[in-house]
């Protein structure tokens, strides 16, 4: 893509010069950011595909499944949502239902449930058409709705889908259609011309190919007339309509394309897991996909890929099957990073990290001297850093509720922190970060799953208040 | 006098009684949605979870005062205390949510506060999950206040107060209805007759204009969140007393139905929210009575879609005029 020599249509001089007025970031982060911003799209895609292609050669099967396949699935889901929310600006909170419909449809078309075994070349296109049609119908019923109404109707639609597959389970051909809470099991692997994708490596490469194809198609779509019209619609529907852009048709198209991609992801998900159940399509997965799209930056394809990688890696680190040691190392690393990034000067960040460490040892020593029972607890099992943490974080013994109180105190402390002025805030960071460590060791380590949902929820709130455009999104320039 | 009814009228009356009590809860939740929407044009997804937190505050007071089996207080002051604590706690929570999650986004693009609201909802759900665990917590309202709870002798809350054609109306159902009516009357008076009510109406009508007239709109918005959340907190305790069980996920569906009620009645309209709540409650009761409980959500969802298609401004709402 060549640099345009004059401002884009609809952009005046002040807006066009906006980027030049921005301060460029220095250091590694700035370099990476500039590289990502200026590297042409094919180079970015090639770099991603080349790196992702090496994964099966140095990862074992379990890791490939957890990191490789799931990241790619999240990318695919994020790409579909990006079309609806990122390009067209429609807040679709029923997106997961399309994913679910895709997974269930594939499950019914290719499994023992009804004894139908269609090959993937027949079932995947059919399922995609089906989900696109459902998306279209939902879009038609709600096309007159403004943003918020649309959000609630789609949210309700997603919930109605879960209730439908879980509880309603209507009988078709003498068998519950959706299998109720148990879902559909024994789903076939993807089959092309009699060849079945059964190993993780094969599934991974198929998924990678799919993601690359979808990424390419979406790139061209977003640069096309349709893509520009979507963005116009997102920025100002009324002005877009006045410019004779067919608003309704574009909305429906975005809905249908997003739904079709979600349906495709559903097919692959069902075939890889070989079973689907209502629990896979609830609110948590919706939040995860939103976190991916928003973290990366709404409307940015590179952002979706990066967001999916970051979210899935932190997800797997906080998964209960993983040894605690990884989660702990990651958590403290992120805490230190936040501390360094929270202040402008690097030396101050380093000083703060040091201050937190000293603060911890001092607090622990005081507690031990004053009330030994409050520091007698043992650190939760697990590897690296455990010995250090044992002497650094206050872990009471026999005070069951301590973790809960610490958690509430942490939430209050963070809220207060955001209201403090200047230096007070910097100073208050130290005890707050230490409190976060206490909460982690006393409460979060025992329920890592809940902890990660809490962190994701906070991430959404925090990102919206601090940087609503996400990591790679372009900030809106408002002309007043 | 017996009315000639072709169908099982006992079942019908029972469902009506259930529907009215359920509708009271939805009406209270819907009021919070409708007030916030009217004033900020913001869809507060977290409202259902404020209701859930209210139910848990009531539970906390109950178990803090000796638990449902051997409470330290007599029944009346105990229930009153639960209501007051839950209402005050939820109200403060609403103010804090507005202050930290929505106010910084007042000038942001329209998507930002919605996503932030989604985050708040998810955060509250999982915080309660972390603090209280995934198991159901029970108010034990069946034996609450009973002289002999160990043998499950029913308490006074489920005593029949009077009968309608052989169908019992329990004390708790009457309390729910009366408290709801009382709160609605108080709210209507507050909005119609007081200074702060006038400021609320002005802010809802035109925020910038109100600001220029010297109204501290930020405070008015905070106050609106407070009132809405107070009502949700009261509804949370009522849910606990009616159905005995509270859990961390209860706010999600209740929030959706409360919102449906607000939309059906006409969003932004206070009498509309009350009417909508009643309609949704009755529909849900009839749907689960005649088709089975598993279809209740699907039927309510169908009503939402239908109303939005036929009369998008709701039953009592005024159509929005778009100014270019």
First and last CA, distance of chain A: 31 Å
- Individual helix count of chain B: 11
Write the H/E string of chain A, N to C. HHHHHHEEHHEEEEHHHHHHHHHHHH
**What is the CATH level 1 assignment of the largest domain in chain A?**
Mainly Alpha
The mean pLDDT of chain B is 85
Structure class of chain A: mainly alpha
Query: What is the radius of gyration of chain B computed over CA atoms, rounded to a whole number of angstroms?
Result: 20 Å
Let me know the number of strands of chain B.
4
Kindly estimate the percentage of residues of chain B that lie in beta strands according to DSSP. under 5%
The percent range for helix content of chain A is 55-70%
Q: List how many beta strands of chain A DSSP finds.
A: 6
Estimated radius of gyration of chain A: 25 Å
Helix content of chain B: 55-70%
Q: Would you write up a description of this structure?
A:
The complex is a heterodimer of chains A (480) and B (324). Chain A is an all-alpha fold and 480 residues long. Chain A has two domains: 28-317, ABC transporter involved in vitamin B12 uptake, BtuC; 325-446, no CATH class. Chain A contains 20 helices and six strands. Chain A has helices spanning 13-16, 18-21, 27-38, 41-58, 61-87, 95-109, 120-141, 147-168, 200-223, 225-235, 237-242, 247-273, 283-296, 301-317, 324-342, 346-370, 386-392, 402-419, 422-442, 448-466; strands at 110-111, 116-117, 171-172, 175-176, 191-192, 195-196. A two-stranded antiparallel sheet of chain A has the order 1-2. Chain A has a two-stranded antiparallel sheet with strand order 3-4. In chain A, strands 5-6 form a two-stranded antiparallel sheet. Chain A is globular and about 70 Å long. Chain A starts with 12 loop residues before the first helix and ends in a 14-residue tail after the last helix. The model of chain A has no long low-confidence stretch (mean pLDDT 80). By secondary structure, chain B is mostly helical. Chain B has one domain (26-258). Helix content of chain B is 68%, strand content 4%. Chain B contains eleven helices and four strands. Chain B has helices spanning 9-40, 47-64, 75-102, 111-132, 171-193, 195-205, 207-212, 217-243, 250-265, 270-290, 296-310, and strands at residues 137-138, 160-164, 167-170, 245-246. In chain B, the strands form two sheets. A two-stranded antiparallel ribbon of chain B has the order 1-4. A two-stranded antiparallel sheet of chain B has the order 2-3. In chain B, a hairpin with a 2-residue loop joins strand 2 (160-164) and strand 3. The longest helix of chain B has 32 residues, at 9-40. The termini of chain B are far apart. The relative contact order of chain B is 0.20. Chains A and B meet through helix 8, helix 13, helix 18 and helix 20 of A and helix 3, helix 4, helix 9 and helix 11 of B.
